[in-house]
């Protein structure tokens, strides 16, 4: 009997040690960390005084390099990512930069890699047949809102060595070219990180130290009064590193775990194509990543969730007119041989009541460099699974040992009787 207890105790101890090893390995599989530094309108003192200017420079310092992010809200909101040697500094010729002149933004050393995203358009479409697909709408059932015509105001800014958050709000839409006005707002929240973790903002995207998160909210944005079933889509322009002749790779991936985003078991990844000289290597490029979910209330719970739909990337050929009123033109200028593609994501799914149901829609995505992170079971889930699988096995082993020992012949008693 004592042998069975000792064996069971030993197995229990082994199970416990194994469990903690699994949890420790899960927690330590990605230990890279960056230190964040940030500057609002760097070195723009007298020039920016009295002007509504928001350009934030975020430097994420690693052991061997620095990732620079620029978040800009002059003209079309845009993000520039640049990987440089650690000693590289950013230089902005502010007068030219505010006038959107080419090459008014540059680094002291040539970046290893650059990549940019412009939040280019908000497309309203009249979904008369409730398909939730923008590619079924004709021109007569489509309106385009250009983000440069919103009046952008800085709501809040948080800066420290571990995370940086910039909240912006665009109001008072006025398309001066067409004399179109709209009430309502677009809210953008941008976040930079120093390590691998899930964001505290629903849908709790998994970010790395090489990524930044952008959250978009359409809040009571006025719809076209002639549209009965308005929905919205967001058009991004992607500019920069990668073979311009190859379309970006869109890869929807299934996930086994919805711990962080209940009910959503899919992640969409968009990868930039490699340069020709990289022989198909993808690790050095950039990516966009999101969960295909939009929320129609500020609570962002399961009951207020709907779907998003992504459409195949498309090449853009009129480069100058496409990027002219953005920070990316200030950096790239009139360069040729650049990747330039647009990506459209529509918000909403069939039967969800359209935008008019709540007048609120969200979309959250990650922009990053390198290999996109893959969702893994958290330590808590691993522990629960291990206990759920290990305890029944342990009980079965202990029960089997106990039954085997009970059925063993009692040899000592038979010896005494024979005497």
Automatic annotation (TrEMBL):
<keyword id="KW-0812">Transmembrane</keyword>
<keyword id="KW-1133">Transmembrane helix</keyword>
<keyword id="KW-0325">Glycoprotein</keyword>
<feature type="transmembrane region" description="Helical">
    <location>
        <begin position="380"/>
        <end position="405"/>
    </location>
</feature>
<comment type="function">
    <text>Required to protect lysosomal transporter MFSD1 from lysosomal proteolysis and for MFSD1 lysosomal localization.</text>
</comment>
<keyword id="KW-0458">Lysosome</keyword>
<keyword id="KW-0472">Membrane</keyword>
<dbReference type="InterPro" id="IPR029382">
    <property type="entry name" value="NCU-G1"/>
</dbReference>
<keyword id="KW-0732">Signal</keyword>
<comment type="subunit">
    <text>Interacts (via lumenal domain) with lysosomal protein MFSD1; the interaction starts while both proteins are still in the endoplasmic reticulum and is required for stabilization of MFSD1 in lysosomes but has no direct effect on its targeting to lysosomes or transporter activity.</text>
</comment>
<dbReference type="Pfam" id="PF15065">
    <property type="entry name" value="NCU-G1"/>
</dbReference>
<comment type="similarity">
    <text>Belongs to the GLMP family.</text>
</comment>
<feature type="signal peptide">
    <location>
        <begin position="1"/>
        <end position="26"/>
    </location>
</feature>
<protein>
    <recommendedName>
        <fullName>Lysosomal protein NCU-G1</fullName>
    </recommendedName>
</protein>
<dbReference type="GO" id="GO:0005765">
    <property type="term" value="C:lysosomal membrane"/>
</dbReference>
């Amino acid at each position: 009997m004592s042998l069975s207890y000792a064996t069971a105790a030993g197995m229990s101890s082994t199970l416990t040690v194994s469990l903690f090893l699994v949890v420790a390995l899960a927690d330590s599989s990605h230990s890279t960390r960056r230190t964040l530094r940030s500057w609002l309108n760097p070195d723009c003192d007298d020039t920016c005084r009295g002007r509504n200017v928001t350009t934030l420079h975020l430097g994420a310092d690693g052991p061997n390099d620095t990732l620079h992010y620029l978040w800009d809200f002059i003209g079309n909101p845009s993000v520039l990512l640049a990987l440089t040697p650690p000693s590289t500094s950013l230089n902005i010729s502010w007068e030219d930069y505010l006038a959107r002149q080419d090459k008014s933004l540059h680094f002291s050393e040539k970046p290893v890699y650059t990549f940019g995203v412009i939040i280019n358009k908000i497309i309203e479409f009249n979904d008369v047949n409730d398909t939730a697909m923008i590619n079924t709408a004709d021109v007569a059932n489509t309106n385009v809102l250009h983000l440069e015509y919103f009046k952008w105001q800085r709501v809040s800014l948080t800066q420290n060595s571990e995370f940086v958050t910039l909240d912006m709000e665009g109001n008072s839409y006025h398309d001066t070219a067409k004399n179109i006005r709209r009430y309502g707002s677009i809210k953008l929240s941008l976040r930079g990180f120093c390590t691998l973790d899930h964001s505290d903002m629903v849908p709790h995207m998994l970010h790395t130290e090489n990524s930044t998160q952008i959250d978009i909210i359409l809040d009571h944005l006025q719809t076209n009064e002639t549209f009965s079933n308005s929905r919205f889509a967001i058009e991004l322009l992607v500019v920069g590193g990668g073979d311009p002749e190859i379309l970006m790779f869109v890869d929807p991936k299934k996930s086994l775990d919805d711990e962080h985003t209940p009910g959503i078991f899919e992640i969409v990844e968009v990868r930039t194509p490699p340069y020709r000289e990289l022989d198909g290597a993808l690790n050095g490029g950039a990516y966009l990543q999101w969960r295909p979910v939009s929320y129609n209330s500020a609570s962002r719970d399961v009951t207020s969730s709907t779907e998003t739909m992504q459409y195949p990337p498309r090449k853009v050929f009129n480069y100058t007119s496409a990027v002219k009123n953005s920070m990316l033109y200030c950096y790239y200028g009139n360069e040729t041989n650049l990747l330039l593609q647009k990506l459209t994501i529509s918000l909403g799914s069939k039967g969800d009541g359209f935008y008019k149901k709540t007048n609120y829609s969200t979309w959250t995505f990650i922009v990053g460099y390198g290999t996109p992170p893959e969702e893994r079971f958290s330590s808590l889930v691993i522990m629960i699974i291990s206990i759920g699988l290990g305890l029944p096995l342990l009980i079965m082993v202990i029960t089997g040992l106990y039954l085997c020992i009970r059925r063993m012949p009692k040899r000592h008693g038979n010896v005494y009787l024979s005497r």
